[in-house]
Structure formats: structure tokens, C-alpha cells
Amino acid sequence: MIAGLLLVGTIPSATAVPASTQSNCVKCHFDIEDENGAAHQIGRDIHQQSGLYCSDCHGGNPALDDMDAIRASAGYRGVPDRLAIPAFCSRCHSDARYMHEYNPSLSVDQWEKYQTSVHGMRLAEKKDRKVATCVSCHTAHSIGAAKMPYSSTYPQNLPTTCGRCHADKAYMAEYGIPTDQLEKYTRSVHGIALLERGDLGAPACNDCHGNHGAAPPGIASLDAVCGLCHAIEAHLFDGSPHRPAFIEQGLPMCETCHGNHEILKPSDSLIGLAEGQLCATCHAADDQSKASADILKVSAGLRSLGNAADSAAHLLSLAGAKGMMITDEEFMLKEVGQIRVQARSTVHAFAADSLTPKVEEGLAKAEDVRKRAVKLIEEYDFRRFGLGIASIFITLLALGLYLKIRRLG
Amino acid sequence: MPGPEHRQQQSLPRRLYGWADTRFSIGDLVDYMRHKTVPVHGHSIFYYLGGLTLFLFLVQVGTGILLLMYYRPGADSAYESVRFIVSEVSFGWLIRSLHSWSANLMILVAFLHMFTVYFTQAYRKPRELTWFTGMALLGLGMAFGFSGYLLPWNELSFFATRVGTGMVRALPFVGDYLMQVLRGGDEVTGATIGRFFGLHVAILPAAFTLVIAAHLLFVQRQGMSEPVDWMTKNQNEKKFITFFPNFLYRDLLLWLLALNVLALLAVFFPDGIGIVHWPLGQKADPFAPPPLMIRPEWYFMFAFEALRLLPVHVLFLEGELFGIILFGLGGILWLLVPFLDKSSNLNRRSPLFMWFGVLVVAFIVVMTILGYTLP
User: Fold this and answer.
1) What domains sit in chain B, N to C, each tagged with a CATH number?
2) N or C: which terminus of chain A has fewer CB atoms within 10 Å of its end residue's CB?
3) Do A144 and A4 share a domain, yes or no?
């Protein structure tokens, strides 16, 4: 880090080296390096694409065509020591005025945040050469903006980027932390959304842990982290009796019920006091408490809403299979689904009374859909009956005509 | 003159007939129909196809008038009104289904009618104008189908019409202008619905009525065409039935059976089935990406597929233009067959024209199959 700080002196300019001489570094390095080498990778690096070149980071005079002469030239910095990398990069990235020339919207607090991260603290305090530095996540010479799909920090690539170290048992052995986060995340509702469905709004590692200031969220702040996306649930949870109780018992907020890396899609069956149900972990069915009564009421409400929605959906699919037009009813059924989602959100208030209006609204709507589906099925039967009557009438008429034709010869 | 007592002895229909006969002399007409005969032979069944086409057209007129009571043309109302018809209006679904089924069946039967007339050489002198008016009716029927397809203003109809109207751009000099006339602008919009609606419910019905009146008049005046090989037969070897009532009753019997089939199809397959399909689906959205496979109605498929399979350039012409010219020439050739086929005018078989017909049928069938099977 000190070495890095010493390097912070001159700020390279995009026009410091004439374009005609920029390729001198690449000319030699391209021949002596394999395809993973800097000269081969630099083509897709955002710095190179922005007009910066080797000497802007590594110093020296690239106009010279001899490696030794370049090394001896003024300002040559060469390859930074691993401990000095964050400072090496922050020469530019912490300079707001300089960065404004290239990307005014890019923050310049990466180094500051990095110093608060577990990675940064171990690097500074323990001189741990294994912790992640800038190049661990961003690569050294094929750095891409996070919005570029080939970038190592593109949301869909980020779990793998973090997993390169955190899923490596041998590499992480000395730190005594689990290495199954990536595996669990891949199975989680977030992982499936991001990696399988391609939903870039779904959180990757950095959305919960931070990126440059990466650290495990604190117990008390966990609901705030989850609440960044799940705002309604977090708001309800803040006013619920669970929050003070969890703080008192030192339980991580959302994580206590939902887990962390392997957050699965919650179902109504999680709520209840039977063996294996989530609430039974802390609450007993026979404790005669208001909490237990509330849990049973919430469970019953969600179950009845789910059953009503399933029943309506089943009848509607029957009507649809018979060729009836069910577009309006399908739309209404989506509203029931939306009400179910809202009801599940309301569970986070942990008060049965706040759930009741939603359940009643959903039940009424589901019943409406069910009635309309039944009416459609009855309509279908009526059509067939009507067809039968009309068909008999037409057939009799045709028969009479046929007999008349025969009589005429 | 019969007295009051005699009139009381007559049945009501007879009295009505007498009332009308006194004023309009319809006795002459009935007498003409009684003496008119229809040949009976191995292919007599083909004589009923024209009547069946007429029946299906009448069903369309009836159901079309009923649909007209609720249909509202316009980009903001067309889809909504059709949706209202099929979901809210009593028996609206049945009317729309009958309208669509009868339209498709009418085109099918009209094609069959045309090919049976062609292969029995019934177009030969003196029935050239009957053939011309028949061809005009088929063209008008297809125009009915094309203009009616857009009216629900759903996703499929919108993109199919965009492709269909876009094809005329291939025509040199007038292509762009024609497309603008068809669309009412550069793009398919609410203005296009207005035009297609006007065509579908006013211009085409008026034209169709005039041409069908001429067609029926010709058929009635000239009678049914006798087979070519009857010309060598003696009069006593030929068999006939009277047009009224024998043929007409048989015609009516077929109409009743067709009505039964129509009702069955409309109830069990209200949105059609297979390649004959008209689900309402989503409302047209000009900004949405087009569906993966835009297909025209089945009776345009052979032409659509043939144009699609043509290379980008043929000789010095663009492929699409070459195809349109080829179809144009083919159509003219087909239309002029009564004049070109000299043998049939001498009441002889025409192997050349028979093979030409087989080639046309094979082309239509193969191209249609390719249209539905090729990716």
C-alpha cells in the first residue's frame, strides 16, 4: 500500500503519448506472451478503448523500441506489487477531476470503500497477499464496464468472479469461512432469476455485500440490506414484534427465516406450527400465546386463499380447454395472484389482523373468477345442447326433403 | 273467372301464388323452370358446387349483417368491439364463428367449383362469360377474405396485412402509390381499417351482387353444361331431371346438410382448427415485434410461398416482381382458356389443357404444403 502511495504522483493523460508510438509496447509483448498475456487481452480493455494505453498505467516512454531503454526511461513504474495494486489504480480512480474527463457518472470512492472492506483491511493490516485486489475481480488487462456482458463484473458473471476464490476450498481453507455460497446462491431464488432467467434486476453478490467495500452485512442492518429491494416487507418487519425480539436474541433479521445465500421461493406452507414448518422453529403449538393463535390464523388465511385461487384456475383452464374465451377471467386470475403476493408480503407484519382484509379481497376475487368459469362451462354445455336441438331440427327437415325427392323419383 | 266459393276451396299457398301470378305473371317463370332440365351422369354431383357456394355466401351476408350491428371500425375500437361480440353479445361467438367458417368453406367450394368446371370443360362455348364471371366471383371472394382478415385488428391480422399490402411495392412505378392507396398511408393504421371496412361491407358486396346476378342469369339462360362425350350420344341415351322441383330440392337438401356441418364446426371449433384458425389473441401493437411466423390465409399460401421461394433476382428482375408478373400472366392464361382451348369448342377432349390444369392443381397443392412445412 505504501509502495502504491508512492506511485501516486503524476496523473496520466489520454493524450500523453502520441498514438503513433503507442503500439511499441504491444509490438514486443504480443510476440513474447501467450494468448492470456496483456498484449493479447488489451483489445477489449475499457482503458484502451477510452484512448489510454500501457504507459498511462505503467509509465515509461513507449516511443522507445527497446525494453531496457523503456525500463530506464523517466516515470517507468512497471508491474505493481500485489499489495500496491489498489493504490496503483486509485491514482486515477480516486481523482474526481481526472475521472470526469472519461466518465462523469463513475464514483471515485472505490479505494476509500476498499479500505473498509474485509479484503482491504486484511491487505493493509496483515499484508495478506491472497485477498482480492482490483485485478482479482476486474482482471488486469481486459477490464470491462459492468454493463458489458463480457466483463467479469457483469451481473451474470459476478457470482463466478467472486466464486473463483470463495468457492475454492483449498484457497479459502485458512480463513475458516464456508465455501458453498456460490453453490447455494445458484440454487436460490435470486440465483435462478439472474443466472437462468437472465433477470439483471436480481441481486448478485455485490448487491447485498457491496462491491469495493465488500463485507458480510451486520445482524442489525440485514433488514435494511434486503429492504433495498423488498421495501414493503422491510417496512412491515420494522413495525413488527419480531424486530425487537430478534435484536434481543441476536438473531439475523430476514436471514433467520429465509436463510442467506440459499434463499428459496417461499410458499404458504412455511407458515404454521406443525413439525417442519418455519414458525415451529421458535413458536410452540401448545403455548396458548397470541403469537401462536396469530400464526394459525395467518396460515389458515393463506391456505384458503391459495385453495380458492387454485380451484378458480382449474375451472378456468377447463373452460379454456373447451374453447371458451377466457381472456378477461385470466386477467382477473392474475389479480388474484397479485393479491396473494401482497398477502404474503403482509405476513411480515406478523399480525393476523393486517392480513385479513387482503385474504378477504383475494377470496372474493377468486370466487368471482370461479363463478365466471362455472358460467362459461355451463355456457359450453348450453351450446352443445342448442346445437343438438338445431341439428335434430335440420336433420328432420333434410329427411323430409329427402323423402319428398324420393317420392318425386 | 272463379267465384268466391272456388277461392275458399283453394289452399293458402295456392291463393298466394294466384295473387302474385295475377300481378307479376310468375307462372311464366315457374313454367320455364319446370321445363328446364339438368343432365344426369357420373359427374352430376359437380352441378351442386355452385349452389353450395351461393348458400355459403348467403350465410356470410346474414352473419355479416349481424356482426355489423356491433362492430366498430377504428384502431381504438375494432379489437374491443370484436372482443365484445364474442364475449358479451348473446350468440356473438356463434355469429362470428359461422361468418369465419362459411367464408373459408366458400373459398374452398368455389375453388372446387372452378376446377370441376375446368376439368369437365364446362367453360367451352357458349359459356365463356359464365367462366369469366365465375373467376371474377372467386377473385372478389378472396378480396373479401383479405379485407375481412384485418378487421379484428389483432396481432396476427395486423402483421399479415402489413406483409400482404407490402407485396404490391414490388410493382414498378405504381407499387409505392398502390401500397399507400391500400393502406391509407405509409403504414397499416386505423386508416387502413377504414378502407378495408368500406371494401368489405360496401364495395365488395355491391360488386359481388352484380357479378353473381350476371353469373346466375347466364346459368339459368344457358342451363347446365352437358359432358363433352354426350355430344356423340343419341337424345334417348341421355338422362335428365327437371330443375324444378327435382334439382332444386336436391340443392336444398345439400344446403341443409351444409348448415348442419357449419353449426357443428362453429360450436366445436369456434376459433377454427389447424390452418383454418382465427383466434382473437392480442390487440395489434404496431411497436411490438412481429410474430415468428407470419402466415397468410390458407388460400393465399401457395402464392405467398412461391414468392418466398423465389431467389432475390431472376434474370434482370427482382424475384418478387418476377413472381407477380408470372402470377399475372398465369391468371390471364387461366382466364382466357375458353378462347384458347379450340378443341373444347369443337366438343372434343383437350389433353393439353387437362394437363395444364393438373399442373396448376399440383402447383397449388405443393406450394401450400411447403408453406406450412418449410421453416
Assistant:
1) 33-297 (1.20.810.10)
2) C
3) yes
